[in-house]
Structure formats: C-alpha cells, structure tokens
C-alpha cells in the first residue's frame, strides 16, 4: 500500500516537473522572439506594424568620420523621438560584409522587426534583405543602396547630383590651377565599386567632365576605383599617378574627404599641395581644415540630420501602419537586370568651398568654428578663424 502511494507521488511529481520544464522552454522561445526593448513577440515581423525594436547597421568607421560621429547619434536620437518607446540596436560592420550579415541575423533573432542598413557591400547585403523578408521584417537601405528588388525603402542623397557638384566645381575653377596652360591633366580617385554611391558619384562627375575630356581641355591620365574607400590605398594610387606623369597633374577628383586627406599627403611629398585642385565629399572637420589650409578646393555637404530624420519618420509610419506617401519624394531603380523601383527619400547636397563655409555648415551647426579652426589651422585662416 505504501509502495503504491509512493509510486503515485513520484508520477505526480514527474508530471508537475514536466509542466514546469515545458513552461520554461515556451517562455524562452517567447523571449527569443522579443526585442530587448519590448515584451511583444515579433517572430513574424508583421511587416513592421507595431514594431518598437529597430536594428541599425552602419558599414564602417575607418574611411569617414560621419558614420560614428554623425549618423549614429542622429539615428539613435531621432528614431525614439519619432516613435515613442522605440528601442534601437546599433551595430557597425567595420568594413566587413560578412560581419554585417552576422549582425543582421543577430538582430532578427533578438526580434528586431525593422532594419536600417547602410551596406558594407551593396550586393552582399541583398542576403540581409532576403532573410528579413522571410521573417516579415522590412528593410530601409540607408545612404547606400542595397541591390535587392525586395528592398522596402531607400533614404539617401541624390548620388549623381553629388558627383555632378564635384565635376561642375572642377569645370568652373580649373583655370586657377592651369598656370596659363590651355589643357590640364586629370586624375580620378573614385570610391569603392562595391558601394553603389561611388558609381553614382562617378557618373555625376563624368557628366560634367566628359565634354572637356572629349574636346582635349582635360586629359584623363589616371582613373581608379578604390577598394573599401581605403584612405592609405588612395595615397598609394595618387603616388602612382604622380610617378606615371612626372608630377604633371593639375586636377585630382577625389570622391570623399577621407581619401582627399591622403591624396594631399601624396601631393605634399612632391610640394604640390595647394597647386592641384582637389575635391572631396562628406563635409568632414578634416576636410574643412584642408580647405582652410588651401590644400583642398571643395567638399560636398550632405545634411545627415535630414537623412536620419527621414529614416526615423519612415520607421514611425511603418510601425503605425500609416501611409509613407508624404515622406517619399522619388524612386530609385536597383541597378540589376529587372531592377525594381524602390520608394525613396532623396535629399539635396550642397557644394562648399572657402567662400560659403560660414553660410552653410557653420550656420547649420553641422560643424563648429572651434572644430575647424583647431590646430594645425592658423588664426585668421580663410577669414574665418
């Protein structure tokens, strides 16, 4: 009798223990599908509706100060501002497409239900979009276009317009660097081919430059796309261009400020800094210092705060299930066979040189006078410091 009672107790305890274990397992499964800022399961993503957990994935920090210095704080500020209760998971791929894909998969596993991705590699990031789509998670391509027809939105600046501003500046100012010659030698240090923006910048620049190349005013003596926008590589490229042309170079189209800095280093070694027209882009503090020192002619100002805010507004609209038509101002065709037209927000870039630093980036508070006038810039430089 006692043995039978003892057996029933063990069976009852086993059933109870099984229920407890099953409950723990189910709870664990539920938490695995929950973003760290919300208790709402988001396993199927629900196409972003009701989403409060946002994954932000930026590409790198090595080639431009903008990503961690401007984009990151703006996005982390603006997304919760536009979407109350939003939690943002931030990652930076540090130039690795594989690492970015791992970061995206980790965000999806945590339950992030909208992704913002500035791709390290425009083609490789298509796998992120495919994975997200399979889980009902919309993807906003940020600044750089992802080559995927399943992309939901694209927020950036008009890349062709950026390059065209650089090219037009060269067309309008090349004679100052020609030293009386009727034609000049042109070097082009482009960005990475894996970044669609670099292709757009080159396209826009060539729209302005090609007529003068065709009529012999400009001789294109060197043109290259720089892997990963790598600054030291850009310096090596400029050194090669100078050697190949016995230092006979008057114009250096350089796609961004980071590479422009190392191109200027190559020119300085030959005592050519300030004697060659050097372009840039991204409106960095270092770029403005080179402009004030007379080594760089111009940069392109992209008001990143507008880009970040438009992204935050899109996220809020997706989450609430509202129309995005009042935010979208264009479409961008994915540059692949049968490329889809992606609803886009495209902001307007502005060319900046020493003549309008005060009325543009200083007036907007994008940079401060204290930042750009710090050493090695001397007092009084450009009439600004």
List the helices and strands and how they pair.
Blueprint lengths: L1 H31 L20 E6 L7 H17 L4 E6 L4 H14 L3 E4 L8 H9 L4 E4 L10 E5 L1 H15 L10 E7 L5 H19 L3 E8 L5 H14 L6 E4 L2 H13 L7 E2 L6 H8 L6 E3 L2 H17 L9 E4 L7 E7 L2 E3 L5 H7 L4 H4 L13
Parallel strand pairs: 1-2, 1-3, 3-4, 4-5, 5-12, 6-7, 6-8, 8-9
Antiparallel strand pairs: 10-13, 11-12
Helix pairs in contact: 2-10, 3-4, 5-6, 7-8
C-alpha end-to-end distance: 98 Å
What's the gyration radius in Å? 26 Å
In the residues, how many domains can be counted?
Answer: 2
Q: Taking strands numbered 1, 2, ... along the chain, how are they ordered across the largest sheet?
A: 2-1-3-4-5-12-11
Remind me, CATH topology of the largest domain? Rossmann fold
Poorly predicted regions: 1-43
| CATH class label of the largest domain | Alpha Beta
Arithmetic mean pLDDT: 90
Number of helices: 12
User: What is the name of the CATH superfamily of the largest domain?
Assistant: Response regulator
Helical coverage, percent range: 40-55%
The CATH architecture assignment of the largest domain turns out to be: 3-Layer(aba) Sandwich
State the oligomer.
Answer: single chain
Order of helices and strands: HEHEHEHEEHEHEHEHEHEHEEEHH
Label the overall shape: globular
Tell me what portion of residues adopts beta-strand conformation.
15-25%
Number of strands: 13
Category by helix and strand content: alpha/beta
Explain what this protein looks like in three dimensions.
- The protein is globular and about 65 Å long.
- The chain is 44% helix and 16% strand.
- Helix 6 links the parallel strand 6 and strand 7 (218-225).
- By secondary structure, it is an alpha/beta fold.
- It has helices spanning 2-32, 66-82, 97-110, 126-134, 159-173, 196-214, 231-244, 257-269, 285-292, 304-320, 358-364, 369-372, and strands at residues 53-58, 87-92, 114-117, 139-142, 153-157, 184-190, 218-225, 251-254, 277-278, 299-301, 330-333, 341-347, 350-352.
- The protein has 2 domains: 45-157 and 303-347, Response regulator (Rossmann fold), CATH 3.40.50; 159-302 and 351-383, Response regulator (Rossmann fold, 3-Layer(aba) Sandwich), CATH 3.40.50.
- The longest helix is centred in the first third of the chain and has 31 residues, at 2-32.
């Amino acid at each position: 009798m006692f043995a039978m009672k003892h057996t029933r107790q063990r069976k009852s305890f086993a059933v109870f223990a099984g229920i407890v274990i099953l409950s723990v397992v189910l709870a664990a499964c539920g938490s695995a599908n929950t973003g760290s800022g919300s208790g709402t399961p988001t396993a199927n993503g629900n196409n972003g509706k009701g989403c409060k957990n946002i994954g932000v994935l930026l590409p790198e920090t090595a080639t431009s100060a903008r990503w961690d210095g401007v984009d990151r704080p703006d996005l982390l500020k603006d997304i919760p501002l536009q979407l109350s209760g939003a939690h943002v998971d931030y990652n930076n791929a540090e130039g690795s497409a594989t690492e970015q894909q791992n970061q995206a998969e980790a965000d999806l596993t945590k339950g992030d239900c909208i992704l913002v991705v500035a791709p390290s590699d425009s083609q490789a990031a298509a796998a992120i979009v495919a994975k997200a789509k399979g889980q009902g998670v919309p993807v906003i391509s940020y600044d750089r276009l992802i080559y995927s027809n399943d992309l939901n939105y694209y927020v950036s600046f008009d890349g062709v317009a950026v390059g065209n501003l650089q090219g037009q500046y060269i067309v309008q100012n090349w004679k100052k660097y020609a030293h009386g010659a009727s034609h000049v030698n042109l070097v082009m240090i482009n960005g990475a081919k894996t970044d669609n923006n670099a292709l757009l910048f080159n396209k826009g620049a060539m729209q302005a430059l090609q007529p003068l190349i065709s009529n012999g005013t400009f001789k294109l003596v060197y043109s290259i796309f720089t892997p990963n926008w790598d600054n030291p590589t850009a310096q090596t490229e400029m050194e090669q261009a100078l050697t190949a042309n016995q230092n006979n170079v008057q114009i250096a189209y350089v796609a961004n400020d980071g590479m422009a800095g190392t191109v200027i280093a190559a020119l300085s070694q030959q005592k050519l800094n300030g004697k060659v027209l050097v372009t840039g882009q991204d409106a960095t503090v270092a770029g403005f210092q080179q402009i004030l020192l007379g080594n760089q002619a111009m940069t392109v100002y992209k008001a990143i705060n507008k880009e970040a805010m438009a992204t935050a507004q899109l996220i809020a609209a997706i989450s609430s299930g509202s129309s995005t038509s009042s935010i979208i101002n264009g479409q961008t065709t994915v540059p692949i066979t049968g490329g889809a037209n992606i609803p886009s927000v495209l902001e307007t870039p502005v060319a900046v040189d020493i003549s309008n630093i005060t009325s543009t980036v200083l007036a907007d508070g994008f940079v401060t006078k204290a930042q750009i006038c710090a050493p090695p810039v001397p007092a009084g430089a450009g009439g600004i410091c």
